[in-house]
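Re: the multi-chain job from yesterday

Posting the exact lines I submitted so nobody has to dig through the queue logs.
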Amino acid sequence: MRLYLKFLSMHVKSQMQYKVSFFLTLLGEFSASFAALLGVWFMFLRFHEVEGFTFQQILVCLGTILMSSSLAECFGRSFDRFPQMISNGQFDRILVRPRNEILLVLWSEVDFSRFGRLIQAVIVLSYALFTCGIGWTWLKVVTLLLMIGGGTVVFFCLLLVYAGISFFTIEGLEFMNILTHGGREFGRYPYAIYGDRVLKFLTFVVPLALVQYYPLLYLLDLETSFMYMLSPLGGVLFAPPAYGFWRFGLRRYTSTGS
Amino acid sequence: MIQLQNISKTFRIAKRQAGLGRAVKALFSRDYETVHALRDVSFTIGPGEMVGYIGPNGAGKSTTIKIMCGILTPSSGTCLIHGRIPWQDRLRHVSEIGVVFGQRSQLWWDVPVCDSFELLREVYRVDAKEFRRNLDELVPLLDLSEVLKTPTRSLSLGQRMRCELAASLLHSPQILFLDEPTIGLDAVSKIAVRQFVRKLNQERGTTVILTTHDMQDIEALTRRIILLGKGRILFDGPLDDLKKRFPGAKTITLEYRGNAPSILPGVEILDSRDGRLVLKVQPTRGLVSDLIAHIASQVQILDLSVAGASAEEMVAALYKEYAI
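And the result, structure tokens for all chains:
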């Protein structure tokens, strides 16, 4: 933990060398995710509800997904850049350090500009939570926290898998973006609206629905079973296979020329 | 103690062909080519030894270094360093080695060098006293006092390399891997780096394994060399043995006063200008001394030098001999 703070302070020092650039990207990230919000808003100007969900209810959905994906990206940003780290030899350097390689990869880059999205997520979520008319109980507060926490884990694991694939090939990784960026963009609406097959896929293969759709039903009193409340915990089950995949890739690591 | 036994490493590389049509085809079926980066490499390096690991580009030098560092897993063979298998016990292994990749920096680009050092101290869990002691020793030796507060990006290459060396030694490693440490450096910096490495080896007894293309590095630093070509060890032994194997021609340069002297048969004139003569002699019994005596009887010799084949020439000859 102390080491992490050390790394963090190094990043702050580095980024503060380029202050203007930092604030501009922060602003850019903020407005980029603002577009997502506008998209939903325009939609509702016409339709008033999507599959029975109101605007505010959709915003709860959007807020939690935005929150968990930007949290995951804030800290897992370097996985996105992992193919480059392999090709420029930075990863070799990491492997000769006596610390866990995943942590070192994570810490090698912290993207503060994602805070722009995080701020957005906080604003959207707080607006939605106060206006969507949820009857709050302690259990629902726990559910919400589980949604955000579980969502962060799932998005983080997706990034880990993305990085793990780069051990085998560093080309054609874009298809993973369907899951990472796609998961976030489609996550604006409850996953169930995309049909039964998508929902099944997102339940059993990539458990994004476990942290979004099912607990949302609980929050909105559409389901009362504890299963729905606790389903984000199921999302955590995604972590061991994701980590296993990374370890498998690491053993097959072939590095790059001199 | 470093022991490598029958280490082999093969890579499977997807063949790529030129042309759009073939590139599209490659999306669906790929031909793989097996590349033998290392074949049956075995050697032992004792503690405190300084070894030059040389070979042309693509011979497998970096692959060997990466295996010894625990970065790569070999396809077959065993490697024991301090009784550990590097890639299986990586975290403990790497805390005892230092690695300098000449072409890649380990320092943080935008922050002062001392901050990078401080971070490394934390990464390697070096206690404050040991860190202080190492720094007090390394800073004057590498002449770093003035650059410690400078961000890496504004250092010259020579300054940076000296910082890299210091950064790799902060945790007092017993083995130091230097991968092309003098690449791109000017003469002064090269000499500084060499002197430092020699001192390190003598005073701390650090085992040094050096890969380089600069034969002067090798001549200045190592007595033993391991020559690698196409993934095989071609020569392992003292540099002097290699020299004996390749006596090569001697070059005699002399300055004289008087008319151009005659020379003996079997001697080749490389250059002859007013008062300066460069000769190439095949070193057969006593020819060199006969030749000098012969010339001295004709003219007054002002200056004379005899040079054997340089390590550079020898290695080039070796590469040629093994067709690599």
